[in-house]
Design goal:
The protein is globular, with a radius of gyration of 21 Å. The longest helix has about 35 residues. About 75% of the residues lie in helices and about 0% in strands. The chain is mainly α.
Length: about 425
């Protein structure tokens, strides 16, 4: 066995579980916006009141990202990923067993808490092991998108065919099994403590690092609000405006899944483009496309709405991995989990306000036109913020350096091991 063989096996495991984790994160976080369509009769609450039960989960999904990233950098990447799988699985099962609105809110809050681990830890992990980062982020994004996509149909199908509780319990069991497989496969490949193989970033803070961080924070807060609001509202939007197409909750879930599956191709394309085009220009253009599409979505229904929403989702998903690539260019490896965590606190934490806003606007106005117009304004603001990013470095002068072909790309070593501060 050559020395490179274990590294290759470990790289495949790392990439596989990073992708699986992204799928599980978004699947579990977005089951409830479809399940909630069926809970009104059982609990006697309005759509807006029921939807607000998910607010603690969305707040923790963002707010807990910073400590999760810090622990990933300082304690253990493997330990945090194991905690992610087992915590998410157990929390989803607890939600499915809840017998009151308070119990549902607690369960959804715990899902958000443990799901917050993925983005700062899993993305930093991915950026450390990937050779072609743009491509790796693109494919990783597809798995996240598939989680978003299948959340609606999984929730709808399990609710219609079994019970709404099954919509949480069975995906929770899936997450637990993934955690068991993660621990078993990491050990079975002969993983051993070894020097950290993360590379591809500056050795210390760069002059533009904090400028990039704050600009991306503003821009991604705006895009996060757009993505979170539309994702939460889409099942109800389709239920309102596509009743002739959807008919039942299963039909609504199927349409939402179809839109997101078709849109997931965007991150593969975006991944290839990130390796070829200036990141700043790509980020500005992708943000800017959202403005007219959100306005058009407010004005249409039926088949035209489906087409517009698909385009809106396509360009929105294409935008998602670009900030991570930009941050990797300017952020030292040893800070990466913490910096990603801080960005996700701002982006996902602020985006959690989408939950009460979506419910309030729907209950107050009877539709989503006002919401879509407001989101178009945030998309425009995000595009303006992206223009403030520093220009892309000239070829050969970029702050990041791709991992060399002979670098032993392995599961990241834990803090305290030899070379861990490199």
């Amino acid at each position: 066995m050559t020395p490179s063989e274990p590294a290759s096996g470990q790289r495949l495991i790392s990439l596989g579980f990073s992708n699986a984790g992204h799928f599980i994160t978004h699947l579990l976080m977005l089951l409830y916006p479809t399940v909630v369509l069926t809970l009104g009769a059982e609990f006697g609450l309005s759509y807006g009141n029921l939807l607000s039960l998910s607010l603690p989960g969305f707040i923790l999904f963002g707010a807990a990202a910073l400590p999760a990233g810090w622990l990933g950098d300082r304690w253990s990447t493997r330990g945090m990923m194991a905690l992610f799988f087992f915590g998410c699985g157990g929390s989803a099962i607890l939600t499915g067993l809840a017998t009151s609105p308070l119990g549902i809110a607690v369960g959804l809050g715990l899902i958000g808490l443990f799901a917050s681990i993925y983005h700062p830890v899993g993305v930093a992990w991915l950026m450390g092991i990937a050779k072609n980062r743009g491509r790796a982020l693109g494919f990783n994004g597809v798995f996240g998108n598939l989680g978003v996509a299948f959340a609606a149909s999984v929730a709808a199908a399990l609710t219609a065919w079994i019970h709404w509780r099954a919509a949480f319990i069975l995906p929770g069991v899936l997450a637990l099994l993934a955690g068991v497989a993660f621990l078993w496969l990491v050990r079975s490949t002969g993983y051993r403590k070894s020097p950290r193989a993360l590379s591809g970033g500056p050795s210390g803070a760069t002059p533009d690092m904090w400028r990039v961080f704050w600009v991306l924070s503003i821009s991604t807060v705006c895009s996060g609000l757009v993505f979170q609001s539309t994702t939460i509202a889409l099942p109800k939007l389709f239920d309102d405006r596509l009743s002739g197409f959807a008919g039942t909750v299963v039909g609504v879930g199927g349409l939402v899944t179809a839109v997101y599956v078709a849109g997931s191709l965007a991150q593969i394309i975006s991944g290839f483009l990130m390796d070829k085009l200036p990141l700043k220009k790509l980020f500005v253009v992708l943000n800017l496309t959202q403005v007219p599409l959100l306005v058009l979505a407010a004005l249409h229904e039926g088949t035209a709405l489906l087409v517009v929403v698909w385009l809106m989702v396509f360009f929105s998903m294409g935008t998602i991995p670009v900030p991570d690539m930009i941050l990797a260019r300017y952020t030292p490896v040893r800070w990466r989990g913490t910096v990603y965590g801080a960005r996700f606190v701002l982006a996902l934490g602020v985006a959690s306000v989408a939950v009460p806003v979506v419910g309030m606007i729907r209950d107050t106005t009877g539709g989503f036109a006002l919401l879509l117009y407001v989101l178009a304004g945030f998309a425009a603001l995000g595009s303006v913020a992206a223009l403030i990013l520093p220009p892309d470095p000239a070829p050969g002068m970029a702050a990041e350096a791709a991992p060399g072909p002979l670098a032993p790309v392995m599961l990241p070593a834990e803090p305290g091991e030899a070379g861990a501060s490199a």
